[in-house]
Amino acid sequence: MPTTSLSLTETPLLAGILALADDALILGHRLSEWCGHAPMLEEDIALANIALDCVGQARAFYAYAAEVAGEGLSEDDFAYRREAGQYRNCLLVEQPNGDFAATIVRQVLVSAFIDPYYRALMASRDATLAAIAAKAEKETAYHLRHSGEWLIRLGDGTDESHARARAALDELWPYTGELFEVDAAEAALIEAGTLPDPRTLRAEFDATLDHILGEATLARPPGTWMQSGGRAGRHSEHLGFILSDLQYLQRAHPGAAW
Amino acid sequence: MYTQALNARDTTAPVAGPEEAARAARFQARIDAEERIEPNDWMPEAYRRTLTRQISQHAHSEIVGMLPEGNWITRAPTLKRKAALLAKVQDEAGHGLYLYSAAETLGTSREELFDQLLAGRAKYSSIFNYPTLTWADIGAIGWLVDGAAIMNQIPLCRCSYGPYARAMIRVCKEESFHQRQGYEIMLTLCRGTPEQKAMAQDALNRWWWPCLMMFGPPDAESQHSDQSAKWKIKRFSNDELRQKFVDATVPQGQYLGLTFPDPDLAYDEAAGHWRYGAIDWEEFKQVLAGNGPCNRQRMKQRRDAHAAGAWVREAAMAHAAKRARRAAAKADALQQAA
Amino acid sequence: MAEPKIPLWEVFIRSRNGLAHKHVGSLHAADAAMALQAARDVYTRRGEGLSLWVVPSAAIVASDPADKEVMFEPTASKIYRHPTFYEVPDEVGHM
């Protein structure tokens, strides 16, 4: 691989694929940080399973991105040779693991959105995206169940766990708005039947969440202010640190094979 | 594994009379006949103690062993390597879990075994007190540390204690990819840039001697071996296993084009073995005594994770209790309505 | 602080349609739903199963090894329960 960062001419399709890939990679990376530090051994294994699913989804999307971009690029070129500003993931997935409650709330919020999104993507006119979504949807349905069951236990567990779950929900809620944003390029893809319109998934997202939060004796936070920018490459400070870990070896040894 | 209810210890004090001797003789006869001992069977207290110690040490080694490799999950150089390493470290959590389960069948709970580790009363493999400084260390651990572990674990699949033997069969089956994963990393580095090859050589230099120490003290100084051999817990001596490992590993290292950090390493034609130089047993003792480069760091990470998870475990138990109460109340209400 | 003990569960997997569930190991979980999820995550990572059972370990009633002779030896003499006990001439063919 060459030494420099990738310079890409992003077509709307490439940008759309990369947004899906980056969401999966960054979330998988975050979850992988838990390995060896979870509250119990069973959960070390469960979180690693979710992380592996995410990394697998990212690889499938990057492989397709490489095909679309041509120029002999590989999945690793996209993951290891783009600057933070070229990453198109939403802000939610790059938020730190925090305590177990923050990780579980983040997972519930992502899964409650991405699972119906993948289900809708299965109907894409783009056969590759539809196939990736069909495989991924089975995984995200389980992620939603797993994290949902945990959130119910944390919310309706002890006073401490309830307070932590609530704090995590308050903290992460402002990052949910971005999940439903659509820019001009994406609108064209939606129009063409390549990608589903996330705005149509809002009702299902709310219903899923309300069901889980109800059982967890929690509620959607009242705040309506939403953070935004990840899809356009304007990230929180966290992404830079993630990428300096993730890309360290590739950046230090340009062109080497691993 | 299996019901704990029947696993209560034989609390009657061992009467050192003829009856006790007869029981012990019957027990030994079963072992000699290669029968498996199962959790509810009578067993000498010393057998139970020895196995509990050995299996729990083995389990502790798996979960402490997650830490040095876990260091590199976020820094793995390709997505393929990242997935493989994460799956491997995850397997180690699984192996720890299977082994704790096997130890629990002997009557000590996982919580107690954890407490022993976190309080510093239990040992784990000395090897995990060394640092992982470069990506090549991930290759070296897979190739050498897992290679050494497999030497030790394959005979344990025939251990006289059924649950331990069965756990080891599962572990060995899953672990078959670990060593290959590590060797492939080493091979890629050795065929790579000069810097990568130097990284691989440096990793071999640092891991080789600690790996030889993993098999434990020389036979002449080993405390437990005789009785463990008689009970068919251990079927090969430390030195036998160490020799097997050296014989298997040296040609693999030569294929990589690496040099072992032992000027005395030489092939003994007559015996058909690779002879290695003197092991620094003082270093081994120091690491076991807590003075390895990472002992304190590893234990702190384990303690921190356990402490940080306490409120989660409490919440899960509190919720389960609430559910049980609600279900009972609902049943009561239904009964009254009827 | 005494850590509450999280209950132990036994895990059974049916590997392929038509085969019975087989005991594969155990795990700790606070309740049944979590035990089932943990069983999926711990014991089916390599495509081992199509169906899972989890049973609280405390619910298993086991025979006492001391009763082994009383329980299982009397059956050894009932050889008339096995097909080879009966003689059928070769000419009759497979039966």
From TrEMBL, chain A:
<dbReference type="InterPro" id="IPR052703">
    <property type="entry name" value="Aromatic_CoA_ox/epox"/>
</dbReference>
<dbReference type="Pfam" id="PF05138">
    <property type="entry name" value="PaaA_PaaC"/>
</dbReference>
<protein>
    <submittedName>
        <fullName>Phenylacetate-CoA oxygenase subunit PaaC</fullName>
    </submittedName>
</protein>
<dbReference type="GO" id="GO:0005829">
    <property type="term" value="C:cytosol"/>
</dbReference>
<dbReference type="InterPro" id="IPR009078">
    <property type="entry name" value="Ferritin-like_SF"/>
</dbReference>
<dbReference type="InterPro" id="IPR012347">
    <property type="entry name" value="Ferritin-like"/>
</dbReference>
<dbReference type="InterPro" id="IPR007814">
    <property type="entry name" value="PaaA_PaaC"/>
</dbReference>
<dbReference type="GO" id="GO:0010124">
    <property type="term" value="P:phenylacetate catabolic process"/>
</dbReference>
<dbReference type="InterPro" id="IPR011882">
    <property type="entry name" value="PaaC"/>
</dbReference>
Automatic annotation (TrEMBL), chain B:
<protein>
    <submittedName>
        <fullName>1,2-phenylacetyl-CoA epoxidase subunit A</fullName>
        <ecNumber>1.14.13.149</ecNumber>
    </submittedName>
</protein>
<feature type="region of interest" description="Disordered">
    <location>
        <begin position="1"/>
        <end position="20"/>
    </location>
</feature>
<dbReference type="GO" id="GO:0010124">
    <property type="term" value="P:phenylacetate catabolic process"/>
</dbReference>
<dbReference type="InterPro" id="IPR009078">
    <property type="entry name" value="Ferritin-like_SF"/>
</dbReference>
<dbReference type="GO" id="GO:0097266">
    <property type="term" value="F:phenylacetyl-CoA 1,2-epoxidase activity"/>
</dbReference>
<dbReference type="GO" id="GO:0005829">
    <property type="term" value="C:cytosol"/>
</dbReference>
<dbReference type="InterPro" id="IPR012347">
    <property type="entry name" value="Ferritin-like"/>
</dbReference>
<feature type="compositionally biased region" description="Polar residues">
    <location>
        <begin position="1"/>
        <end position="10"/>
    </location>
</feature>
<keyword id="KW-0560">Oxidoreductase</keyword>
<dbReference type="InterPro" id="IPR007814">
    <property type="entry name" value="PaaA_PaaC"/>
</dbReference>
<dbReference type="InterPro" id="IPR011881">
    <property type="entry name" value="PaaA"/>
</dbReference>
<dbReference type="InterPro" id="IPR052703">
    <property type="entry name" value="Aromatic_CoA_ox/epox"/>
</dbReference>
<dbReference type="Pfam" id="PF05138">
    <property type="entry name" value="PaaA_PaaC"/>
</dbReference>
TrEMBL record, chain C:
<keyword id="KW-0560">Oxidoreductase</keyword>
<dbReference type="Pfam" id="PF06243">
    <property type="entry name" value="PaaB"/>
</dbReference>
<dbReference type="InterPro" id="IPR009359">
    <property type="entry name" value="PaaB"/>
</dbReference>
<dbReference type="GO" id="GO:0097266">
    <property type="term" value="F:phenylacetyl-CoA 1,2-epoxidase activity"/>
</dbReference>
<dbReference type="InterPro" id="IPR038693">
    <property type="entry name" value="PaaB_sf"/>
</dbReference>
<protein>
    <submittedName>
        <fullName>1,2-phenylacetyl-CoA epoxidase subunit B</fullName>
        <ecNumber>1.14.13.149</ecNumber>
    </submittedName>
</protein>
